[in-house]
Amino acid sequence: METNMPRTVLITGTSSGYGKAIAEMFLAQGWNVLATMRRPDPGVFPMKTDRLRVLPLDVTDPGSIGSAIAEGVQTFGAIDVLVNNAGIGLASAFEATPDAVVRQLFETNTFGALATCRAIIPQMRRQGSGVIINVTSSVTIGPMPLVAAYAASKSAVEGFTESLSYELRPFGITARLVEPGYAPTTNFTTNGGARMKGLIPVEYAGFAAACFAKMAAYPTAYCSEAEVAQAVLAAATEEGRVLRYLAGADTKMLAELRWSSSEATYVSKMGEMFDPLWPVEA
């Protein structure tokens, strides 16, 4: 294969936020981009270029996944990188979270990511190369209160991706994780907050209000769309055996705390950061 030919990336969930920024980053780097979303809106990407295709893809619909991959291969000849970015958020008291809501989280965040991986692997295996990047969350490193269901849906993808990375290495395929922090400027937080309605019962209301206030006041910088896009580009292009790419000062702070501290110290510091009732040690 000629090394000067543009490579092709397929990205899920590109209508806004991280996904849109990721698509724009790859376009700026000269890649062919398959920007997918459930309801395609060409207005999301006003630039005119033959290197961009905006396609429908619903990660909960296997037929939709297959059609997008087939069209991408037909258009650009091959897909070199898959970025599983589509996802939904939720803050809730788990006790009050119905099974239907939990299953909706897993259908998109977990099973949707698994389905797109399963669909793209045969094409990458035949060409003897490829990179799969699953975008998860900093909650897989440091889970805060009131995101138990969401953290579970993303943590499942972490275990899946690490196992998959060893499974696919003999075929020349790399699987990696990008772990973004909290990005208050994206629609992700707004949409997750809308789903929270009715899921914080009165028994949890005081705790939740104090918890969110404590998190908002914590003295750390948060994550930006540009940082996530840069991390995804690095994961797509760097050689070596790195599995996790961290995005955002908050993610890096949590990783340092988790991986460089004892279990007791980690739990104590997490409590101080997120739990309004946590006893502060003298």
Automatic annotation (TrEMBL):
GO terms for molecular function: oxidoreductase activity. Keywords: Oxidoreductase. Signal peptide: none annotated. It comes from the Bacteria. InterPro entries: NAD(P)-bd_dom_sf (IPR036291), Sc_DH/Rdtase_CS (IPR020904), SDR_fam (IPR002347), SDR_oxidoreductase (IPR051911). Belongs to the short-chain dehydrogenases/reductases (SDR) family. PANTHER family: SHORT CHAIN DEHYDROGENASE, SHORT-CHAIN DEHYDROGENASE_REDUCTASE FAMILY PROTEIN. This is Short-chain dehydrogenase/reductase. It comes from Neoroseomonas lacus. The lineage of its organism: Bacteria, Pseudomonadati, Pseudomonadota, Alphaproteobacteria, Acetobacterales.
